[in-house]
Design brief:
The chain is built from nine helices and 15 strands. It has about 325 residues and is α/β, with parallel strands linked by helices. It folds into two domains: about 90 residues, Fe-S cluster assembly (FSCA) (GMP Synthetase, Chain A, domain 3); about 210 residues, P-loop containing nucleotide triphosphate hydrolases (Rossmann fold, 3-Layer(aba) Sandwich), CATH 3.40.50.300. It binds adenosine-5'-triphosphate.
Protein backbone atom coordinates (compact mmCIF):
# COMPACT_ATOMS: atom_id res chain seq x y z
CA UNK A 1 0.00 0.00 0.00
CA UNK A 2 1.25 3.50 -0.77
CA UNK A 3 2.46 6.04 1.76
CA UNK A 4 -0.97 7.65 1.51
CA UNK A 5 -2.35 4.72 3.53
CA UNK A 6 -2.45 6.86 6.68
CA UNK A 7 -5.26 8.74 4.93
CA UNK A 8 -7.30 5.58 4.53
CA UNK A 9 -9.80 5.65 7.41
CA UNK A 10 -11.62 2.42 6.69
CA UNK A 11 -11.88 -0.80 8.66
CA UNK A 12 -9.58 -3.56 7.44
CA UNK A 13 -12.63 -5.56 6.33
CA UNK A 14 -13.80 -2.80 4.05
CA UNK A 15 -10.43 -1.44 2.89
CA UNK A 16 -9.51 -4.55 0.87
CA UNK A 17 -12.69 -4.70 -1.23
CA UNK A 18 -12.74 -0.90 -1.73
CA UNK A 19 -9.14 -0.85 -2.96
CA UNK A 20 -9.82 -3.85 -5.21
CA UNK A 21 -12.71 -1.97 -6.86
CA UNK A 22 -10.64 1.19 -7.23
CA UNK A 23 -7.75 -0.70 -8.76
CA UNK A 24 -10.04 -2.53 -11.17
CA UNK A 25 -10.93 0.89 -12.59
CA UNK A 26 -8.21 1.51 -15.15
CA UNK A 27 -7.39 5.05 -16.09
CA UNK A 28 -7.36 5.20 -19.91
CA UNK A 29 -4.28 7.42 -20.10
CA UNK A 30 -2.21 6.04 -17.24
CA UNK A 31 -3.13 2.49 -18.32
CA UNK A 32 -3.16 1.48 -14.66
CA UNK A 33 -5.73 0.89 -11.93
CA UNK A 34 -6.33 3.91 -9.70
CA UNK A 35 -4.52 2.36 -6.70
CA UNK A 36 -1.49 1.22 -8.75
CA UNK A 37 -1.34 4.69 -10.34
CA UNK A 38 -1.16 6.28 -6.87
CA UNK A 39 -4.39 8.25 -7.42
CA UNK A 40 -6.08 7.50 -4.09
CA UNK A 41 -5.51 10.41 -1.72
CA UNK A 42 -8.17 9.91 0.97
CA UNK A 43 -10.72 7.30 1.95
CA UNK A 44 -13.18 7.83 4.78
CA UNK A 45 -16.52 6.35 5.77
CA UNK A 46 -19.21 8.55 7.29
CA UNK A 47 -22.16 6.32 8.16
CA UNK A 48 -22.70 4.57 4.83
CA UNK A 49 -21.22 7.40 2.77
CA UNK A 50 -17.75 6.75 1.37
CA UNK A 51 -15.68 9.91 0.98
CA UNK A 52 -13.11 9.36 -1.72
CA UNK A 53 -10.36 11.84 -2.64
CA UNK A 54 -8.57 11.20 -5.93
CA UNK A 55 -5.46 12.95 -7.18
CA UNK A 56 -4.39 12.57 -10.80
CA UNK A 57 -1.01 13.39 -12.33
CA UNK A 58 -2.75 15.19 -15.21
CA UNK A 59 -5.81 17.42 -15.60
CA UNK A 60 -8.96 15.49 -16.48
CA UNK A 61 -12.02 17.60 -15.70
CA UNK A 62 -14.02 16.20 -18.61
CA UNK A 63 -13.59 12.66 -17.25
CA UNK A 64 -14.75 13.46 -13.72
CA UNK A 65 -18.43 12.79 -14.26
CA UNK A 66 -17.96 9.38 -15.92
CA UNK A 67 -15.34 8.35 -13.36
CA UNK A 68 -17.58 9.17 -10.41
CA UNK A 69 -20.59 7.40 -11.95
CA UNK A 70 -18.57 4.25 -12.72
CA UNK A 71 -16.89 4.11 -9.29
CA UNK A 72 -20.13 4.80 -7.42
CA UNK A 73 -21.85 2.00 -9.31
CA UNK A 74 -19.24 -0.53 -8.22
CA UNK A 75 -18.60 0.76 -4.68
CA UNK A 76 -22.29 0.85 -3.71
CA UNK A 77 -22.49 -2.88 -4.48
CA UNK A 78 -20.70 -3.32 -1.13
CA UNK A 79 -23.13 -3.62 1.81
CA UNK A 80 -21.33 -1.00 3.89
CA UNK A 81 -21.61 1.72 1.23
CA UNK A 82 -24.80 3.47 0.10
CA UNK A 83 -23.36 6.57 -1.45
CA UNK A 84 -20.00 7.96 -2.59
CA UNK A 85 -18.78 11.54 -2.33
CA UNK A 86 -15.80 11.93 -4.62
CA UNK A 87 -13.39 14.85 -4.90
CA UNK A 88 -10.98 14.82 -7.81
CA UNK A 89 -7.93 17.01 -8.13
CA UNK A 90 -4.68 16.86 -10.07
CA UNK A 91 -1.08 17.75 -9.48
CA UNK A 92 1.50 17.94 -12.24
CA UNK A 93 5.14 17.17 -11.67
CA UNK A 94 7.58 19.96 -12.58
CA UNK A 95 9.73 18.56 -15.37
CA UNK A 96 12.56 19.95 -17.46
CA UNK A 97 13.83 17.33 -19.91
CA UNK A 98 17.35 18.74 -19.80
CA UNK A 99 18.62 18.55 -16.20
CA UNK A 100 21.01 21.49 -16.60
CA UNK A 101 18.13 23.82 -17.57
CA UNK A 102 16.31 24.98 -14.43
CA UNK A 103 12.50 24.87 -14.59
CA UNK A 104 10.71 28.23 -14.71
CA UNK A 105 9.64 29.07 -11.14
CA UNK A 106 5.89 29.38 -11.84
CA UNK A 107 5.60 26.76 -14.56
CA UNK A 108 5.22 23.02 -14.13
CA UNK A 109 5.62 21.79 -17.70
CA UNK A 110 6.63 23.39 -20.99
CA UNK A 111 5.43 21.85 -24.24
CA UNK A 112 7.05 22.97 -27.48
CA UNK A 113 4.86 22.81 -30.57
CA UNK A 114 7.16 22.51 -33.54
CA UNK A 115 7.12 21.79 -37.24
CA UNK A 116 9.89 21.43 -39.74
CA UNK A 117 7.95 23.45 -42.28
CA UNK A 118 5.97 26.70 -41.98
CA UNK A 119 2.25 26.96 -42.59
CA UNK A 120 1.31 23.42 -41.54
CA UNK A 121 -0.96 24.52 -38.68
CA UNK A 122 1.47 24.77 -35.79
CA UNK A 123 -0.12 27.90 -34.28
CA UNK A 124 -3.62 26.51 -34.79
CA UNK A 125 -2.60 23.32 -32.99
CA UNK A 126 -0.84 25.26 -30.19
CA UNK A 127 -3.91 27.43 -29.50
CA UNK A 128 -6.30 24.50 -29.62
CA UNK A 129 -4.10 22.43 -27.33
CA UNK A 130 -3.84 25.33 -24.87
CA UNK A 131 -7.60 25.81 -24.81
CA UNK A 132 -8.26 22.07 -24.52
CA UNK A 133 -5.90 21.79 -21.53
CA UNK A 134 -7.61 24.80 -19.92
CA UNK A 135 -10.91 23.00 -20.53
CA UNK A 136 -9.51 20.05 -18.56
CA UNK A 137 -8.98 22.34 -15.59
CA UNK A 138 -5.31 23.28 -16.10
CA UNK A 139 -3.79 26.75 -15.76
CA UNK A 140 -2.29 27.36 -19.18
CA UNK A 141 -0.07 29.93 -20.82
CA UNK A 142 0.95 30.22 -24.44
CA UNK A 143 4.08 31.78 -25.80
CA UNK A 144 4.12 32.79 -29.43
CA UNK A 145 7.75 32.34 -30.40
CA UNK A 146 6.96 32.21 -34.10
CA UNK A 147 8.96 35.27 -34.93
CA UNK A 148 8.33 35.13 -38.67
CA UNK A 149 4.55 34.99 -38.36
CA UNK A 150 3.30 35.68 -34.82
CA UNK A 151 -0.36 34.74 -35.24
CA UNK A 152 -1.36 33.87 -31.65
CA UNK A 153 -2.49 37.45 -30.77
CA UNK A 154 -4.90 37.38 -33.70
CA UNK A 155 -6.09 33.84 -32.97
CA UNK A 156 -6.82 34.77 -29.34
CA UNK A 157 -8.29 38.18 -30.20
CA UNK A 158 -5.67 40.19 -28.27
CA UNK A 159 -3.79 41.86 -31.14
CA UNK A 160 -3.95 45.25 -29.43
CA UNK A 161 -2.39 44.10 -26.16
CA UNK A 162 0.78 45.94 -25.08
CA UNK A 163 2.78 44.34 -22.26
CA UNK A 164 3.60 46.53 -19.28
CA UNK A 165 6.61 46.32 -17.05
CA UNK A 166 5.73 47.35 -13.48
CA UNK A 167 9.32 46.83 -12.23
CA UNK A 168 11.16 47.73 -15.43
CA UNK A 169 12.36 44.11 -15.80
CA UNK A 170 9.47 41.68 -16.10
CA UNK A 171 6.60 42.02 -18.58
CA UNK A 172 2.91 41.33 -18.12
CA UNK A 173 1.17 38.71 -20.26
CA UNK A 174 -2.20 39.09 -21.98
CA UNK A 175 -5.18 37.10 -20.71
CA UNK A 176 -7.63 35.64 -23.22
CA UNK A 177 -10.18 32.82 -23.01
CA UNK A 178 -8.80 31.87 -19.60
CA UNK A 179 -5.20 31.48 -20.74
CA UNK A 180 -2.17 33.74 -20.37
CA UNK A 181 -0.48 34.76 -23.61
CA UNK A 182 2.79 36.38 -24.56
CA UNK A 183 3.94 37.05 -28.08
CA UNK A 184 6.92 38.46 -29.84
CA UNK A 185 4.23 40.14 -31.97
CA UNK A 186 3.23 42.32 -28.97
CA UNK A 187 6.64 43.99 -29.04
CA UNK A 188 7.66 44.14 -32.67
CA UNK A 189 6.26 44.86 -36.08
CA UNK A 190 6.47 41.79 -38.30
CA UNK A 191 8.91 43.40 -40.73
CA UNK A 192 11.20 44.33 -37.86
CA UNK A 193 11.52 40.78 -36.54
CA UNK A 194 11.74 39.06 -39.91
CA UNK A 195 15.20 40.51 -40.63
CA UNK A 196 16.75 39.35 -37.35
CA UNK A 197 19.50 36.81 -37.55
CA UNK A 198 19.31 33.47 -35.75
CA UNK A 199 21.26 34.24 -32.55
CA UNK A 200 19.30 37.46 -32.04
CA UNK A 201 16.03 35.61 -32.43
CA UNK A 202 17.00 32.84 -30.02
CA UNK A 203 18.25 35.40 -27.47
CA UNK A 204 15.10 37.51 -27.70
CA UNK A 205 12.84 34.51 -27.34
CA UNK A 206 14.69 33.10 -24.35
CA UNK A 207 14.42 36.55 -22.75
CA UNK A 208 10.72 36.73 -23.55
CA UNK A 209 10.08 33.42 -21.82
CA UNK A 210 12.18 34.21 -18.76
CA UNK A 211 11.08 37.82 -18.37
CA UNK A 212 7.33 37.37 -18.60
CA UNK A 213 5.29 37.59 -15.40
CA UNK A 214 3.66 34.22 -15.93
CA UNK A 215 0.94 33.43 -13.42
CA UNK A 216 1.15 29.98 -11.75
CA UNK A 217 0.92 27.66 -14.76
CA UNK A 218 0.48 23.94 -15.15
CA UNK A 219 1.45 24.13 -18.83
CA UNK A 220 3.27 26.67 -20.93
CA UNK A 221 2.72 25.92 -24.61
CA UNK A 222 5.37 27.35 -26.92
CA UNK A 223 4.51 27.95 -30.54
CA UNK A 224 8.03 27.48 -31.89
CA UNK A 225 9.39 29.22 -34.97
CA UNK A 226 9.07 26.88 -37.98
CA UNK A 227 12.19 24.99 -39.02
CA UNK A 228 14.89 22.91 -37.47
CA UNK A 229 17.87 25.23 -37.54
CA UNK A 230 19.98 27.03 -34.95
CA UNK A 231 17.09 29.08 -33.48
CA UNK A 232 15.10 25.97 -32.68
CA UNK A 233 18.12 24.13 -31.36
CA UNK A 234 19.18 27.02 -29.09
CA UNK A 235 15.66 27.46 -27.79
CA UNK A 236 15.35 23.77 -27.03
CA UNK A 237 18.59 23.90 -25.07
CA UNK A 238 17.92 27.11 -23.13
CA UNK A 239 14.27 26.73 -22.27
CA UNK A 240 13.19 24.08 -19.74
CA UNK A 241 11.13 22.08 -22.22
CA UNK A 242 9.31 19.02 -20.90
CA UNK A 243 8.44 17.56 -24.28
CA UNK A 244 7.74 18.45 -27.90
CA UNK A 245 4.85 17.86 -30.25
CA UNK A 246 5.52 17.82 -33.98
CA UNK A 247 2.83 19.13 -36.30
CA UNK A 248 2.83 18.01 -39.91
CA UNK A 249 0.54 17.72 -42.88
CA UNK A 250 0.36 14.50 -44.91
CA UNK A 251 2.35 15.76 -47.92
CA UNK A 252 5.78 14.19 -48.45
CA UNK A 253 7.56 17.53 -48.26
CA UNK A 254 6.04 18.39 -44.87
CA UNK A 255 6.76 14.88 -43.59
CA UNK A 256 10.41 15.14 -44.62
CA UNK A 257 10.72 18.37 -42.60
CA UNK A 258 8.83 16.89 -39.66
CA UNK A 259 11.36 14.05 -39.54
CA UNK A 260 14.11 16.64 -39.17
CA UNK A 261 12.14 18.07 -36.24
CA UNK A 262 11.92 14.69 -34.52
CA UNK A 263 15.64 14.12 -35.08
CA UNK A 264 16.50 17.51 -33.64
CA UNK A 265 14.56 16.97 -30.41
CA UNK A 266 15.82 13.42 -30.03
CA UNK A 267 19.38 14.64 -30.49
CA UNK A 268 19.04 17.07 -27.57
CA UNK A 269 17.20 14.48 -25.44
CA UNK A 270 13.85 16.24 -25.41
CA UNK A 271 11.09 13.62 -25.56
CA UNK A 272 8.83 13.84 -28.60
CA UNK A 273 5.39 13.42 -27.04
CA UNK A 274 3.81 12.71 -30.39
CA UNK A 275 2.83 13.81 -33.87
CA UNK A 276 -0.28 15.72 -34.88
CA UNK A 277 -1.29 15.33 -38.50
CA UNK A 278 -3.10 18.49 -39.55
CA UNK A 279 -5.24 18.72 -42.71
CA UNK A 280 -5.37 14.97 -42.42
CA UNK A 281 -8.77 14.48 -44.05
CA UNK A 282 -11.81 16.29 -45.35
CA UNK A 283 -15.43 15.34 -44.77
CA UNK A 284 -17.64 16.34 -47.71
CA UNK A 285 -20.42 18.56 -46.36
CA UNK A 286 -22.78 17.26 -49.10
CA UNK A 287 -22.42 13.49 -48.78
CA UNK A 288 -20.32 12.95 -45.62
CA UNK A 289 -17.62 11.10 -47.59
CA UNK A 290 -14.19 11.19 -45.96
CA UNK A 291 -11.30 11.89 -48.28
CA UNK A 292 -7.57 12.52 -47.89
CA UNK A 293 -6.76 15.36 -50.33
CA UNK A 294 -3.10 15.55 -49.22
CA UNK A 295 -2.42 11.81 -48.98
CA UNK A 296 -3.01 9.28 -46.25
CA UNK A 297 -1.09 7.37 -43.57
CA UNK A 298 1.96 9.71 -43.76
CA UNK A 299 1.70 10.72 -40.09
CA UNK A 300 1.04 7.19 -38.86
CA UNK A 301 3.94 5.72 -40.85
CA UNK A 302 6.27 8.35 -39.49
CA UNK A 303 5.01 7.78 -35.93
CA UNK A 304 5.68 4.06 -36.35
CA UNK A 305 9.12 4.56 -37.79
CA UNK A 306 10.27 6.95 -35.04
CA UNK A 307 8.46 5.11 -32.23
CA UNK A 308 6.43 8.12 -31.18
CA UNK A 309 2.64 8.23 -30.75
CA UNK A 310 0.37 9.68 -33.43
CA UNK A 311 -1.71 11.96 -31.22
CA UNK A 312 -4.40 12.57 -33.80
CA UNK A 313 -5.43 13.81 -37.20
CA UNK A 314 -7.22 17.15 -37.69
CA UNK A 315 -9.76 17.69 -40.45
CA UNK A 316 -9.46 20.44 -43.02
N1 LIG B 1 -7.08 22.01 -40.32
C1 LIG B 1 -7.17 23.18 -40.94
N2 LIG B 1 -8.18 23.44 -41.81
C2 LIG B 1 -8.27 24.64 -42.44
N3 LIG B 1 -7.39 25.65 -42.28
C3 LIG B 1 -6.37 25.46 -41.46
C4 LIG B 1 -6.20 24.23 -40.73
N4 LIG B 1 -5.08 24.33 -39.97
C5 LIG B 1 -4.58 25.56 -40.21
N5 LIG B 1 -5.34 26.24 -41.08
C6 LIG B 1 -5.09 27.59 -41.61
O1 LIG B 1 -3.83 27.58 -42.27
C7 LIG B 1 -3.11 28.80 -42.01
C8 LIG B 1 -1.75 28.45 -41.37
O2 LIG B 1 -2.01 27.89 -40.07
P1 LIG B 1 -1.08 28.21 -38.82
O3 LIG B 1 -0.83 29.68 -38.71
O4 LIG B 1 -1.65 27.50 -37.67
O5 LIG B 1 0.24 27.48 -39.33
P2 LIG B 1 1.72 27.60 -38.80
O6 LIG B 1 2.33 26.27 -39.07
O7 LIG B 1 1.75 28.11 -37.43
O8 LIG B 1 2.26 28.68 -39.80
P3 LIG B 1 3.59 29.58 -39.68
O9 LIG B 1 4.71 28.64 -39.54
O10 LIG B 1 3.59 30.33 -40.97
O11 LIG B 1 3.36 30.46 -38.50
C9 LIG B 1 -4.00 29.63 -41.11
O12 LIG B 1 -4.71 30.53 -41.91
C10 LIG B 1 -4.94 28.62 -40.49
O13 LIG B 1 -6.18 29.18 -40.14
Amino acid sequence: MSSASQNYRLSDDLLGPVLAILDAYRDPYLALGLVSAGCIRTLDLDGKCLRLGLIYPYPCLTQHHDTVIALTKQLTLLDAIDEVECEIDFKLAQISAIPSVEPLPNVKQVIAIASGKGGVGKSTTAVNLALALAGEGAQVGILDADIYGPSIPLMLGVSEFKPESPDGKMMTAAKAHGIAAQSIGFMLGQEEAAVWRGPMVAGALTQLINETLWPELDYLIIDMPPGTGDIQLTLSQKVPVTGAIIVTTPQDIALADAKKGINMFQKVNIPVLGIVENMSFHICSECGHKEHPFGSHGGSKMAERYHVPLLGGIAT
